[in-house]
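Possible regression after last week's pipeline update?

I re-ran a chain I had predicted before the update to compare outputs. Posting the input and the new output here so someone can diff against the archived version. Not blocking, just want to make sure nothing changed silently.
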Amino acid sequence: MAEPKKGDKPIVIEETPGKRAYCQCGWSERLPHCDGSHKQQCPDVGPMVCEITEPGRKAVCQCGRSGDLPWCDGSHKQI
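New output (post-update):
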């Protein structure tokens, strides 16, 4: 099994309301969204599922250190 891949900065995207599954393993071909790659690469690391209530720009954490996952809180600047 592979280790989770971590990024060094967030992925900023425009989101619309609805349920979203954000990748936590880093292997998705659709980052920051989950494509199920964790099932093969990191079966112990699943996606973080959230309900988006307001449309707009979102910064999705890729370092895994945010205190507000899946959203970036700037923790990557401390790495």
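Follow-up from reviewer: compared with the archived run. The chain has one domain: 11-73. Marking as no regression found.
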